[in-house]
Design a protein that fits this description.
By secondary structure, the chain is of the alpha+beta class. The protein contains six helices and 15 strands.
């Protein structure tokens, strides 16, 4: 068995998609027999799943990761244990003892992780995923179902929050900018339909405020709130997931895929294409014809107005 851990200076690196190294452990009879640190060869985000699969990795231990990366890893048959922190050797030992629990997807819903270029629209390979797209590839329904919008709650994950996931310098001003905050929210469309809610999962999300981990309008609402405040905000597409872009809709020859994979495809499925640099990005199957497949690379929430009830639960200085 081979276990890979996102790695930096002996610690579990907290953003899967940005890791530059993995520490790979060879395990026999439940014990580590060897380990080595490997580079990522310039790959990032979902493309790392292909890299790990090529190195015959059976399990990944990491900090934060998004829904697209999770789906790509699962499509490659790799077990994922997310939410780990601290020493990598200790994390592996805890995993082997059955003491390491995964938080699941914990860095997705309101982030900008999938801002890859949709260059050319040509596909190298694609990881098949059933219609579990939700908002950004988390488990849930299709866009029409309007649920599963990052519905993968944990105390530091849920809709876009993951402690240490981005955590760079603040990109906006406000008294909470750069601070770790804990937030409850409920998201609805203009017709009142709920698409996601941390309240329903019983755990607030936690993230670094003002650093781009959340969609702009959400972050702008929180950046000047006081602990205990509850606000209602209405976000236009430019404050959320952007306008719908027809340039992100691509038509691909069906024969570029294995015939058996094409037969499995259904309208609404989420799959992965590769751009000219070999980087994987998620798309939705929009149309199926005898010899053509139309893929939509827009975010499921692109072009939509969103409403949020936001409660600032706590601020960690």
């Amino acid at each position: 068995m081979k276990i890979a851990v996102t790695y930096e200076d002996g610690q579990v690196f907290q953003h899967f998609g940005h890791t530059e190294q993995f520490k790979v452990y060879e395990v026999e009879d439940g014990k580590v027999v060897s380990s080595e640190v490997i580079g990522t060869e310039g790959a990032g985000h979902e493309a790392l799943a292909t890299l790990l699969s090529g190195k015959e990795i059976d399990a990944l231990i990491c900090g934060g990761l998004g829904g697209g990366a999770m789906a790509a890893l699962e499509a490659n048959g790799i077990e994922v244990v997310a939410g780990a922190k601290g020493d990598t050797d200790a994390a592996v030992e805890a995993y082997l003892k059955g003491e390491l629990e995964s938080t699941g997807v914990n860095c997705d819903h309101h982030d900008h992780e999938h801002g890859e270029g949709h260059e050319g629209g040509h596909c190298g390979h694609h990881g098949h995923e059933e219609s579990e797209g939700g908002c950004g590839g988390c488990h849930g329904g299709s866009e029409d179902d309007a649920e599963g919008c990052g519905g993968c709650g944990d105390s530091e994950g849920g809709c876009g929050g993951c402690s240490g996931c981005h955590g760079g310098a603040p990109i906006m001003e406000g008294k909470n900018a750069g601070k770790k905050v804990s937030v409850h929210y409920r998201g609805t469309f203009n017709d009142g339909t709920q698409f996601d809610a941390s309240y329903d999962r019983g755990e607030p999300i936690t993230y670094i405020c003002g650093t781009g981990m959340m969609i702009p309008g959400f972050d702008l609402a929180v950046v000047n709130m006081e602990k205990g405040d509850i606000v209602d905000v209405h976000l236009t597409p430019d404050q959320a997931y952007g306008e719908y872009n027809e340039d992100y809709v691509v038509v691909v020859d069906a024969d570029e895929f294995p015939a058996e994979e094409v037969e499995k495809l259904k309208i609404g499925d989420r799959v992965f294409l590769q751009d000219g640099y070999g980087r994987a990005f998620p798309v939705t199957v929009k149309e199926l014809a005898d010899d053509k497949i139309t893929f939509d690379g827009n975010h499921e929430m692109a072009g939509k107005e969103l409403n949020f009830k936001i409660e600032l639960v706590d601020i960690f200085d």
